[in-house]
Amino acid sequence: MGEWKQMKSVTRKALLAVLGVFAFAAFCGSSLGDVVVNEVELGPPNNGTIWVELYNTGENAVDLTGWTIKVENKPWVGPIALSGSIEPKGFLVAEGKPSWVTNGNGTVYLLDAQGTVLDKTPEINDDRQNDFSYGRLPDGKNTNTKADFLYMKASKGQPNRLY
Question: CA 23 to CA 111: how far, in whole Å?
Answer without folding.
Answer: 23
